[in-house]
Design a protein that fits this description.
By secondary structure, this protein is an alpha+beta fold. The protein contains eight helices and 13 strands. The strands form four sheets. It has a six-stranded antiparallel β-sheet with strand order 7-8-9-12-11-10. A three-stranded antiparallel β-sheet has the order 3-5-4.
Length: 261
């Protein structure tokens, strides 16, 4: 009969190649949650990349010394988050990591590229139209004045993550579809001599419409994060009004809060 002391220390199990799992059986945190969190960290930080196989539940339970229901619960929690997928005859496979974006004035394309998320873009709309009242107010233009409306679908590792809608003053610059599909809008603005200085931004959430669900590979009514932003150049002129939606299962804003002195 094993001594009780043998169960009072964390048990470290090496599995899934270079990934080490530290499972503390004495912790009040359930083992399935410990495993799920450590798997999620491995996906976010790179040891587990999109396409990697974890094997089936039986293999994982043997490797980690856990019961099959515990492993199943951990995997299901990450399947629900969209990080893993179960494939019949193959096992459990990494799909992608969640995008965690700093809450600052930056381009989604630049943030994804810096994080190694393999961003790609499809331009859905790029045309000049009369400004509606809300767009004109945001850009400081007369209602009905000409603006460029730009709509794009952004992907990471080939999977859709956001629908980005922008309005810009029509005289600001010419926007080329090919360039917009190979780089970010803010990088394009900078190359045209537009210096972004600040922005006002509102973040919210709502359920996906049928059209948004189809574009984002989600079910209708799935949770979406929303962002409304007006960006200003270094002369204080509004140069972009954006209204974007992001898959909540794939995307999060990450920021630090400080105590006011």
């Amino acid at each position: 009969m094993p001594r009780p002391a043998a169960r009072t220390r964390p048990v470290t199990v090496s599995a899934l190649g270079s990934v080490d799992f530290a499972l503390d059986r004495t912790s009040p945190v359930p083992l399935y949650h410990q495993l799920a969190r450590q798997l999620e960290t491995a996906i976010e930080q790179g040891p587990l990349a999109p396409g990697d196989l974890l094997g089936n539940e039986i293999d994982l339970s043997v490797r980690l010394g856990l019961s099959r229901p515990t492993v199943r619960q951990a995997i299901q929690s990450l399947v629900d988050k969209g990080l893993l997928v179960r494939r019949r005859g193959v096992g459990t496979q990494v799909v992608h990591s969640q995008v965690k974006r700093p809450l600052e004035l930056s381009s989604l394309y630049d943030d994804l590229e810096a994080a190694g998320q393999g961003p790609t873009t499809r331009v859905l709309r790029n045309e000049r139209v009369p400004a509606a009242a809300d767009v004109a107010a945001a850009l400081g233009l007369p209602e009905g004045g000409e603006v460029t409306v730009l709509e794009r679908l952004r992907f990471t590792h080939g999977s859709p993550v956001a629908v980005l809608s922008h309005h810009l003053p029509a005289d600001l610059l010419e926007l080329d579809d090919a360039r917009l599909e190979s780089t970010g809008l803010y990088r394009t603005l900078r190359s045209a001599g537009v210096t972004l200085h600040s922005a006002r931004q509102t973040v919210g959430a709502r359920p996906a419409t049928a059209g948004e669900a189809a574009r984002l590979d989600e079910r209708e009514g799935a949770a979406l994060l929303t962002m409304e932003r007006t960006a200003y150049d270094d002369a204080g002129r509004p140069v972009e009004y954006g209204t974007h939606v992001y898959r909540a299962s794939r995307y999060a804003f990450d920021f630090q809060l400080l105590v006011r002195p």
